[in-house]
Amino acid sequence: MTDPETKEHFVVNRIKAFKYAFKGAWLLLKNEPSIQVQSLCALVVTVLGFVYEISSVEWCIQLLAIGLVLAVEGLNTAIEKIADFIHPDYHKKIGVIKDVSAGAVTFAAVIAAIIGGIIYIPKLF
């Protein structure tokens, strides 16, 4: 039999976890220009989705691409902040870490742009 107190702590901890997650998302949107640009792009393609009445499958793929780009961009920001905290001055190895992290964002953004092209180019012509 489970302890009611343990179950209560679990629920309270999950609520706190969501609170921290939303706080982190807000901090990204408020303070990080790269996330702001990516979010603007997400807003534009979301509006385009309604304008061009994309299919349910296209919506799912588009939302997955948006989520992937924003998530990877958030992880890139976290990695950069950790790297800067660990070694505030320029260091070649930290530079490589930051470049690789930014490269991951580039992969996600390029794939998202290709997905956008596949969805929207046929609708424009």
Structure, described:
It is a single chain. The protein has 125 residues and is mostly helical. It has a single domain, classed as Orthogonal Bundle (Helix Hairpins), CATH 1.10.287.3610. 89% of the residues lie in helices and 0% in strands. It contains four helices and no strands. It is flat and about 60 Å long. Belongs to the bacterial diacylglycerol kinase family. Keywords: ATP-binding, Cell membrane, Kinase, Lipid biosynthesis, Lipid metabolism, Magnesium, Membrane, Metal-binding, Nucleotide-binding, Phospholipid biosynthesis, Phospholipid metabolism, Transferase, Transmembrane, Transmembrane helix.
Question: Can I get a quick summary?
Answer:
This protein is mainly α. The chain has helices at residues 4-31, 33-51, 56-86, 92-124. Helix content is 89%, strand content 0%.
- According to CATH, the fold-level topology is Helix Hairpins
CATH architecture: Orthogonal Bundle
Helix segment tally: 4
* Alpha-beta content class: mainly alpha
Q: From the alpha-carbon coordinates, what is the Rg to the nearest angstrom?
A: 19 Å
What is the distance, rounded to the nearest whole angstrom, between the alpha carbons of the first and last residues?
Answer: 64 Å
Task: Please give the share of residues in helix.
Answer: over 70%
